[in-house]
């Protein structure tokens, strides 16, 4: 399974190559006032795919890196420069064969990045600290360290045994999504080419929801189908999060959420965290020749070694594909249009940031972790005050996490033999 993990890290870098090849200075200018405010705020991103870089040989998160060289967008120097206090670091598992062996392999693969993240924290206690509760974030940031919450992207590793979620929770996981790009045994994906399989959650998926609630794990509906989101809102005893999503009203993509569902999400206390991944923000037409070239590239990436030289070669190939078959790339303002629409529809109490850096995120004018202050500057320019901007940066996200914690604590406090909560409202 190490080869699967290594190929994922390489592919992640490739997705970012187009970002790195043509940096445009577009985006708001960050004034001294905006920068000062940004530094005062507790700033969290709900979806950092940076753990996929940990297996790249010689890659050190304490050192400054260049996206032109390795495709990475987040490291400690750039986090400091961008004033990001931390966030949720994703444990991503690709969707593999839906067999007993496939699920077991996925389970084993999921533990590798979890261990790597914890080893990072243990090795650098002055720079990073694992957060287990919502209230940990402010304390960690006040100490000058980066906040490390853990999240699961794709519940495939636990579909054979939702009880395994407890093991992940004990190791620090506090956010989990049931599905990724393709359907699995828990739920339907918004982007599976075969369409819906379960028309929402499977029975195993419903047990996954109940177990997450019991453990105080927030449920993440990003990548899930609309029907899954509907059922999560209905079944979950705590608010649902979309850790990195966009709005259909701005760009009609299956990954994005429509206004009616956004209103229901907000009414249930949930939050949408806006991503900065171009394909989900604007139309990017497909060219058969381009798609074929990319498929060949991905095939080579899956079998290549996790070395800097290998990644640089693949980045160069990706750049050539972009040159021969260019597609539009979203701008900072394109992404911000999604953010503003979400605020107008759901209210600022239900919106946050999940840029998807190191997992394909990044747009013109918002290239890597150094650019986070641009969001604060743009919100100020829109007339939002410090308290409202704080909600966007972490207040709403931590409120959802506290709700999950409180519910789980309430279950633990019940007398032995007390009736458990019903499976639906």
Report on this structure.
With 425 residues, this protein is α/β, with parallel strands linked by helices. It has a single domain (2-282, 328-410), classed as TIM Barrel (Alpha-Beta Barrel), CATH 3.20.20. The chain has helices spanning 2-15, 17-21, 32-40, 67-70, 76-82, 100-123, 136-142, 165-170, 203-215, 226-235, 259-267, 288-303, 308-324, 332-346, 373-381, 386-412, and strands at residues 44-48, 86-92, 128-130, 146-153, 173-177, 218-219, 241-245, 271-274, 351-353. The strands form 2 sheets. Strands 1, 2, 3, 4, 5 and 6 form a 6-stranded parallel sheet that branches. Helix 7 links the parallel strand 3 (128-130) and strand 4. Helix 3 crosses helix 15 (373-381) and helix 12 packs antiparallel against helix 13 (308-324). Residues 1-25 and 419-425 have low confidence and may be disordered.
